[in-house]
Q: What sequence folds into this?
């Protein structure tokens, strides 16, 4: 309803509409331009490589939030820069290949030999 209506408005009407609904003008303008609400995907796991982040963008996300995928990696600063580049250049395979090289170990998983893990495993037996 409102998004379709918004797309038929001129710039002055968009400004008035933003004021009427008490929303930031830039957000309303961007919504008109996209024809949908700009929703950022907050990935709660599984995004640990530049390829993962690029795929999220190719699937239609406006941005990607990455936490442990960066901070639990071998070189967090380098991986963070690579993921930012992957999100920016998600359709450029040359850039993706370049930023994906030499990043070191991806997100470290659970060590199954860990004493805590063994205790949890014993509980289910």
A:
């Amino acid at each position: 309803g409102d998004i379709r209506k918004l797309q038929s408005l001129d710039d002055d009407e968009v400004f008035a509409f933003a004021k009427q609904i008490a929303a930031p003008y830039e957000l309303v303008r961007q919504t008109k331009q996209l024809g949908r609400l700009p929703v950022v995907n907050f990935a709660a796991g599984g995004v640990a490589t530049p390829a993962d982040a690029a795929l999220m963008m190719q699937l239609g996300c406006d941005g990607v939030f990455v936490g442990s995928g960066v901070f639990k990696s071998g070189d967090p600063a380098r991986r963070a820069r690579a993921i930012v580049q992957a999100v920016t250049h998600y359709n450029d395979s040359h850039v993706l290949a370049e930023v994906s090289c030499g990043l070191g170990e991806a997100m470290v998983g659970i060590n199954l030999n860990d004493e805590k893990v063994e205790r949890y495993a014993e509980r289910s037996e």
About this structure: Residues 71 and 107 are 8 Å apart (CA to CA).
